Amino acid sequence: MSGGSREYRGLVVHRDQRCDVPGAYPYADYKAHVIEALEESFEDDVKPGAKAVKIKSNGSRRSADVVVATEFRRYYSGPLGVQFESGICFFDSGGGRIVNYPKQHSANCTTKHQATDGWFKPTVRILKNMRSRLVDDGVIEPGCAPSYFLEGLLYNVPDDKFGGNYNDTIVAAVNWILNADRSKFVCANKQYHLLGDSSSVQWSAANCDRFLAAVSKLWNDW
To answer: Where are the domains of the chain?
Structure first.
């Protein structure tokens, strides 16, 4: 078992095998065995979900989401010949394959934070808080703007839009996003375009537009 992952806000359990190559130890068996092991330790507090296995808090123990993942490699031709990016892969309850690159995401967000003199991560938190307010007020539905995509959204904003104070940073960042060609935005892991409907790891352009309109109205009416 590995340590925590920013992408999944919990524990990621890895198996060293490409998920698109059949093996002697099928993924379904592997996941079932992980769940069995968790149930032995945490009993009725274990609740398998659509994507993660949820462990409820109990006493001094905090709640956690466990993602049962296998290594995934995306191969491509590079200057040194055939190369690959290593990520993780898991399957949801409906059998859909989800591929992500948490190490690249974390490293790139850290680099962005440093390049903006420490303004990136606090700005992300402000946008997440605004999202939570909009959900609580019923303006947008839960799941319209996941945290992962908000990080990706701000990752595309030029470094010089961050700084001064939080008010100026939010205004500059959101205005830049509203006027940019968002079809060219990339995820923070730089492996996919941020917006699209062809992949489970992309944000629906319609949901992005809905969120931006709601954020703008919330800010202007504050």
So the answer is: 4-100, 105-220
